[in-house]
From TrEMBL:
GO BP annotations listed: lipid catabolic process
PANTHER family linked to this entry: LIPASE ROG1-RELATED-RELATED, LIPASE YDR444W-RELATED
Organism encoding this protein: Zygosaccharomyces mellis
Lineage summary: Eukaryota, Fungi, Dikarya, Ascomycota, Saccharomycotina
Residue spans of biased composition, Low complexity class: 406-417, 428-440
Protein name: DUF676 domain-containing protein
Domain (DUF676) ranges: 171-388
Spans through the membrane: none
Family: Belongs to the putative lipase ROG1 family.
GO MF annotation, one: monoacylglycerol lipase activity
Superkingdom classification of source: Eukaryota
Amino acid sequence: MSPDLLLYTDRQEVGIGDVYRYRFTVDVSQLPPGTQDLFLRIKNLESPLLRPIYISGPYSVYVDVRPCKYDEDKQWEETVQFCCDLRPDEHFHAKLLINENSLLEGSKHSWTVDVLSQVCVTAGPRVKYRLKLGTTRKSTKQHEPEMLESCIDIQKWDTFQLWDLPPKYSEKPVHLVIMTHGIFSNIGCDMLYMKERIEKATLNSDADESNVVVRGCMDNMGKSAHGIRYLGVRVGKYVLKVYEELSRRYTVDKISFVGHSLGGPTQTMAIHYIALERPEFFKNVKPINFIALASPFLGVANDMPLFVSLGLTIGTFGLTGRDLTLKHTPLTSTKGLAATNSDGEKRSLRRPIMEILPLSPAQEVLKNFQYRTLYASVLHDGIVPLRTAALLYLDWRSLAKVGQLRRQQQKQTNNNTEEGSDIQVDEPSTSSSSAPCSPSSFTSNYSGIMGVIPEAPLDKKATAQFFMPHKLVKYRKYARAQITDSKSADGSSESDEQETTPPRKINEEQAKFNPPREASTILAAISVLTSPLPTQDYIKDPNSRTDSVVHDRMYHPSELPPPHYKSRPFYKKIIYPNESSNKLQEEIARSWQKSMSWRKVLVDLKPDAHNNIVVRRRFVNLFGNVAVRHMAETHFGNTQA
């Protein structure tokens, strides 16, 4: 038998949202004597002239290889092999080591290879690739494989097979989980990691909620510019269709929604549509989790540079751009939107869709969800900044105060790395007991401190500017969104402090108020293409990862401060050009929170935080693993309430 054996070859093409997964199980006892490793070769078959084309592409694929015993949450010794962007006419070579890490049983070794399309803008382009597996690198250049059926077993899944898995227990009630993607994104590839983390979290759980079936609407891929109403109606129709299909084989009695970025407003619009078309749906199916990660529920009208907001407003990104800048577009369909309030009064639909989303009938459904959770990045997400992702209202003052404790701990750690710190900050309030799990139970394995907002250390220039007028403006900006009844360490209320502070006098405490830095939209957009990849040490050693959950707290309607922009003098509308949009954002934020509690989880992730928060690609965006793991385990795993 020749030592140069080509064991398998395959040629496929992928478009937007397409993925192919291969699982190779090889009986090494049947291989030629002396075979110590296997060799994988994947080539992008597209023309090299397509490399610089991104508007309709990019014409590339992502590839990773994982031995059967690999677990991203455990220590790993072997080099992890992946290619973040296999461009046209390029090759990817990987050596599949035959060792303990790949040992399945007996003399059988197994590896999993994922090939994911990088096409993200339009649904038309297709990318062809060829995969070969051989016993030597030379053999991967051969054309026809040797027929050794006793030697190798190949399992292959495409996108629809991966997203059509049955529940663990067919005889038990099924918990349907609907995932919704964001702008320039897709279900098949971009949400695959999060889907599998949810399924992994339920493996060892016997709770009824853990018998999950995870699905996602693939009808909106490449249609992000068509508007939130259009996208949401399509997701709503998809939910009803999937429910009817599953009901023929199983009993579906629970439902959860998980959305990323634009997926948050889109899944809310889907709830609107379902509540109108099938009012009995949420009576027959119990709503469990409403989860949104980095979702712009308040739009981005005041969070983007002027030229970006103006571009979105005039329609450079279609109806979705106008929706996100809180503009109403006439002559658009109102299908899926209620024309009356819950009390039967007529409602005007000639207003921004973002203003309508938190109203009835969706509001009544949202109240019935057992858990409502928001995830937001405190830094490095200029695409969906913290204020809009966290619905504006946070315990800003307490978060700013504990920043000093964080710096003290960092300084102590730097001075003596061998001694652990005993500083405890921002313990979850007793009200957080209604959350899916105790936050401390999950974050005890992480080095990040609960409740600490990462911030740059103060320099001399910043100290000199403490008493400048712009500092007062900055303080007031966050003071308006400061929740009330936030107890300090001595038992006093933060709201009491606010009342005793002269409104036009900046005191020492206000000067020291240092909220998280506002992320740059431009830098966030650039980081999508230029952000550094995780190092091999970061991938292999979970203890080296510094990304963390820094704040996890329940926020209740009783903690909302009085509205700031209500009955404002007319002259302020002239002085402050953003007065009207600020008022509208405040009204939207209060509509979301005035009648229901929200769990808000803030995470500190490396750039590109907007894609990292859902781990868009398994190893490229592994910085966000802490957020996805937290979401999966606290809402679907053993640690859920």
